[in-house]
Design goal:
By secondary structure, the chain is of the alpha/beta class. The chain has helices at 13-24, 31-41, 44-55, 61-73, 90-102, 117-125, 166-180, 184-188, 202-213; strands at 2-6, 27-30, 81-84, 109-114, 127-130, 136-138, 158-159, 193-197. Bound molecules: adenosine-5'-diphosphate (ADP) (2 copies) and zinc ion.
Length: 215
C-alpha cells in the first residue's frame, strides 16, 4: 500500500501517519522531517533549506524529490509508504510517479484531510513534540497524560518548531493554496482521491482513514 496524506500545515498528517506506522507497519516518508534532520546536521541540503523553511516557503523540487527517491530505494518492497508533506507541487507529483515506477510501486490512495483554515493557526501555534521520540502533542487538544512527561517514552523534554509561529503559518497556508491544492485534480482523474473530515477528533480521523485503507 502506498498513500499520500495531503492537507495544509496543521491538518494532522503527522499525527495520522504515526498511527499508521504504529498499528499498520507502514513507513512515514516526511520531507519536512528529512529537511529538519538535514538542517540539524548542517549538511549541504540543510544549509540550503534552512532560511527557506524559516520563511515558510517551499524548498526546491529537486532537493525534496532526491530525498524521497533515496528513502524509498532503501526501503523493503513489502513495507507500505505514507507520503507526508510530499508531493507539494505539480513537478513533485510528476517526479513521484517516476520514483514509484522505478521502485515497482503504485499509488493506492491520496487522502485529503479537509480542515478550516481558521483552526490551523490555533493547531500549529499549540503544537509541540517530544524531544526524544518525536511523539506529537498539542497545548489543548493532545496533552501528555501526565503533565510534562511523554506518554510514549517518559522523556521530560519537549520542543517546538521555529516555523510554527502565526506569520510563517500564514505564508505556508498561502503556499499550500497556490501550489499544493492544485495537484488534486491530477489524482482525481485517476479516481484515487478520498476525503476525510480533518476537523473531527483525532481518533475519528484515524477511523475514517482506516476505513479507506480497508476498502
Ligand atoms: P501536520 O503534520 O499536518 O502539519 P500535525 O499532525 O502535526 O499536522 O498536527 C498539528 C497539531 O494539531 C498537533 O499539535 C496535533 O497534536 C494537533 N492535531 C492533529 N490532529 C488533530 C485533530 N483532529 N484535532 C485536534 N488537534 C489535532
Ligand atoms: P507541516 O507539518 O506544517 O505541513 P512540514 O514539516 O511538512 O510542514 O514542512 C516544513 C517546511 O519544510 C515547509 O514549510 C517547507 O519549507 C519545507 N518542505 C517540506 N516538505 C516540502 C516539499 N515537499 N516541498 C518543498 N518544501 C518542503
Ligand atoms: Zn517521547
Amino acid at each position: 500500500m502506498n498513500i499520500i496524506l495531503l492537507g495544509p500545515p496543521g491538518a494532522g498528517k503527522g499525527t495520522q501517519s504515526a498511527n499508521l506506522v504504529e498499528h499498520h507497519g507502514m513507513r512515514q516518508l516526511s520531507t519536512g522531517d528529512m529537511l529538519r534532520a538535514a538542517v540539524k546536521a548542517q549538511s549541504e541540503v540543510g544549509l540550503r533549506a534552512k532560511a527557506v523553511m524559516e520563511r515558510g516557503e517551499l524548498v526546491s523540487d529537486e532537493i525534496v524529490s532526491a530525498l524521497i527517491d533515496a528513502e524509498l530505494a532503501a526501503m523493503g518492497d513489502d513495507v507500505g509508504a505514507i507520503f507526508d508533506g510530499y508531493p507539494r507541487t505539480a513537478a513533485q507529483a510528476e517526479s513521484l510517479d517516476g520514483i514509484l515506477e522505478k521502485n515497482g510501486r503504485k499509488l493506492d490512495y491520496v487522502i485529503e484531510l479537509q480542515v478550516d483554515e481558521d483552526a490551523l493557526v490555533d493547531r500549529i501555534t499549540g503544537r509541540f513534540t517530544c524531544a526524544n521520540c518525536g511523539e506529537g502533542y498539542h497545548d489543548r487538544y493532545k496533552l501528555p497524560e501526565k503533565e510534562g512527561v511523554c506518554d510514549k517514552c517518559g522523556s521530560t523534554e519537549f520542543k517546538r518548531r521555529p516555523d510554527d509561529n502565526e506569520e510563517t503559518v500564514r505564508k505556508r497556508m498561502q503556499e499550500y493554496r497556490a501550489k499544493t491544492a492544485p495537484i488534486l485534480p491530477f489524482y482525481e482523474d485517476r479516481g484515487i482521491v478520498r476525503r476525510v473530515d480533518g476537523m473531527a477528533a483525532i481518533e475519528d480521523v484515524t477511523k475514517a482513514i482506516e476505513a479507506i485503507l480497508a476498502s
